[in-house]
Structures
1.
Amino acid sequence: MVALRILIVEDDPAIGELVRRFLASQGYQVDRAVNGQQAKVMSERFRPDLVILDLNLPDLNGYELCQWLQQRTGVLVLMLTSRAQEEDWIQGFHRGADDYMTKPFSLMELRMRVGALLKRRRAGNLWETAQLEFGALVIDPQSRQVSVAGQVVPLTPLEFNLLWFLASHPGQIWNRDELIRQVWSYNAEHVGDPRVVDVHVGQIRKKIQTQITPELIITARIQTVRGLGYRFSADPPAPGL
């Protein structure tokens, strides 16, 4: 089996080399960039399955680089940074990050999170099934695209996985911990704040809502079930997701 490829974007030589050696010892093919411009070049040459990205880069804003990577390649992105405020990780997820870790960090936790992300990527490749259609809303697992009335909704890989999972189980209520296990592929206690689920649901709703006009009513949507969690409903209540 070909080793999965990981690109580390880290300007601190001690941390970068530590992470590179550790992941290489786990059987991954690993390369490292020390700034944003180098990361752009290497991402197209190296074609990583996962990028581990520090936000504090000497030349580029890490959030902007994450967004560029998502728009260009759709690669999985794990942010590994010293920025630990709530607004930092919310901004990270808004810009397309699939996971967020803060420094200082445990190498064992890093191994777990990397493995879970790459497991999700492998599982996503096996989703060879019919597309889901809910009126104007279409979810296609083969192209991994979501559209509303023919207009593509630009979801990140993680947002697509979350929407696909919920839509594949219409009417079933899932709490945050269950969604983290099913979609993030690891135990909830390792995620940190379970409100990451709320952030991604909010992003999905916002992106789909931008495709809706007064003439277009979309009845399929993610519902919040107060005190319990979320469910995907295809029933015809009020307009919107």
2.
Amino acid sequence: MMMIDEIDRRILRELELDGRISNAELAPRAGLSASACLRRVQELERRGVITGYKAMLDRSYVGGGFTVFVTVGLSRHLKEDQEAFEVAMKAAPEVRECHNVSGAIEYLLRVEVANLDAYKYFHTEVLGIVKQVSSITSYICMSSPKDDRGTASPPIRQR
């Protein structure tokens, strides 16, 4: 595993805050020359520490302002069933996140749709026809007082 030093942490923190920051702006914040900073960023990308850059959207403007968290149980605990379920979820544009979790269920989904009718369609016509699914529990998101996706992560506490 690649060691991340304090300079790399500064670079990563700044890029999490603004993935469009220019190298000329980033370099002094990281305490580096522009060329040294660019080399560091390229190395972080090459090693897979930085996996990509994206725009954060207000989903309500693009038909996805209604968020539902969905727990899904599978009928069998077989690798082939997990893989089939994951393929189906990757193909569903409503599914913004799909997490394989431990506990009483196998998956936790974050689903974004336009409204309750659109969610009912997804529940019945998309998720409801996946043969591996044995249980579905929906939690409609009322508000999100904290959502750090797309913002700088706080430093991880070391023990």
3.
Amino acid sequence: MNKVNFSNIEPKDFSKVIHKRVNQYFKDKGISKTGNFHMYLKTAMMLSLYFVPYVILLLNILPIWAMFVMYAIMGVGISGIGLSIMHDSNHEAFSDKKWVNKLFGYSMNVIGFSAYNWKMQHNVLHHTYTNVYGLDEDIHDKPFIRLSPHGILKKHHRYQHLYAPLLYCFSTISWFFIKDIKQLSVYKNSKLTSKNTTEAIYNTPITILTKIVLLFYIIALPIMIGLPVWVVITGFVLMHMIGGLLITTIFQLAHVVEGPEHHDAHKTDMIEGSRAVHQLKTTANFAMKNPLVTWFAGGLNFQIEHHLFPTICHVHYTKISKIVKETAQEFGLPYYHQPKMWKAVVSHLKMLKQFGNMKAA
């Protein structure tokens, strides 16, 4: 695998200009770039979506149909925690205090996943090498889905635009039982970060303990207090199907849609443009004027702003998006976006169909 670098050539110091303008916005408003009251209120609400139904389930007072409603709400809670709380926290955007970011970053572990693995995959690889096949794990070859024009093409991929949404429903279950465990060895042996850091040293035991605790309080404890085994197992799957579909869909709409370009680390060691320009060329927004989507998706429908300014809390993206869009257009750079979420979904399915029927670029 070649090491990919960026040429750092960009029109008229675009990076300096856009950072100066965004920084000036916060200076003029006299506000912090990190979370505010709205972020903290949302945190309480997202955690409640997960834990309140869980507590109600433990009371064992509901009919079976209502139990499944509780599990469904918990699935929404999982996506809310993942898209908002843990995401901002692990980007150091939740608070200006490191210990607060670290604490809420572990909300990832509370719902059964490794915060450390996520930071390696997402913060280091995805944010650095967005849509670069071979380095961005988000577009790695999956068993049944091809997310890059440079990926290995198989016969069944021609139908992936039809079955992908169903597979997305099982993404977090696969993440919990397979992906996290696989990443333990990959990141332990990699040079992505110092192996001497506390997080790196204790990642394996913390990840394993995380999953044991999750299986105890989500599976074992409800069974111990009297919930039917089949209801608990089915509810667990339902919870993750909802969470997996929501999380995976929202992340896919940012990069695997019409517009953003793709690269192959096997065929090049240099990408033209700076990292900032690369983010504009490989990222897209959607439903920017829909406050409900923005609220629930943790601002990830403003993915361009997030990739340019990952340490800024998502509650500010709506405002700074005007600055980013105008500056990109001023410098003749792309600013991809779909006005509606459903149009972004259609665009994603179109790309899946295209990637499923084309030979490797």
